[in-house]
Amino acid sequence: MAENKPAQFIQPPKTLQEKFVGETVKLTPAAIEKAEAAMEDLAEDLGATLLQDIEKLRCGVDEFRAQQDVELSELFRQSFDLKGLGSTLGFPLLTGLSQTLCQMFEQRKKMNDLDHTIVNAHITAMTAIVANDIRGENDNTGQAILADLAKLVARAQQANKG
């Protein structure tokens, strides 16, 4: 049976606090407002960056179709990056579309005309989502597009197996 010893409290060291040299910063309403404005500016810049990344994917797909030096693994990587950015920046529909492209690029060694049409439809939808700042998962139009494109991908996969 365990002995009844009184509880012992261990005080954690304050090493991080001791290393901090300088003034402490107090958050004022003005500072918070300034930070929020900076975040809005950053969000606008990130939207433009997302559009550039989507366009880079479109160019990669076009190069792949023209049999230039682009591997499907590179298109997968670009789609994967967009998938992560979509989640991080609040574009879940972009994430869903990118996920579908990742699956396509992962399962194929080459792409036929139907595959290219489907990929380009995904990229067009991705561009529209970011350009129109469609955020959230509750956009009915976006969800319908996502579902229809997923059905097209499934049909293409069945056609490629047969």
Q: Could you characterize what this model shows?
A:
By secondary structure, this protein is an all-alpha fold. The protein has a domain at 50-161. Helices cover 72% and strands 0% of the residues. It has six helices and no strands. It has helices spanning 15-19, 29-65, 72-88, 92-107, 113-131, 140-161. α3 (72-88) packs antiparallel against α4 (92-107) and α4 (92-107) runs parallel beside α6 (140-161). The protein is elongated and about 75 Å long.
Architecture blueprint of SSEs:
Blueprint: H1 15-19, H2 29-65, H3 72-88, H4 92-107, H5 113-131, H6 140-161
Helix pairs in contact: 2-3, 2-5, 3-4, 4-5, 4-6, 5-6
In short:
With 162 residues, the chain is mostly helical. It has helices spanning 15-19, 29-65, 72-88, 92-107, 113-131, 140-161. Helix 3 packs antiparallel against helix 4 (92-107).
Radius of gyration over C-alpha positions, nearest whole angstrom = 24 Å
Separate helix tally: 6
Averaging pLDDT over every residue, what do you get? 84
Bin the helical content.
over 70%
Are there runs of 5+ residues with pLDDT below 50, and where?
none
Run of helices and strands? HHHHHH
The biggest sheet amounts to: none
- Which structural class is indicated by helix and strand composition? mainly alpha
> What is the number of beta strands?
0
Portion in beta strands: under 5%
Coarse shape: elongated
End-to-end gap = 70 Å
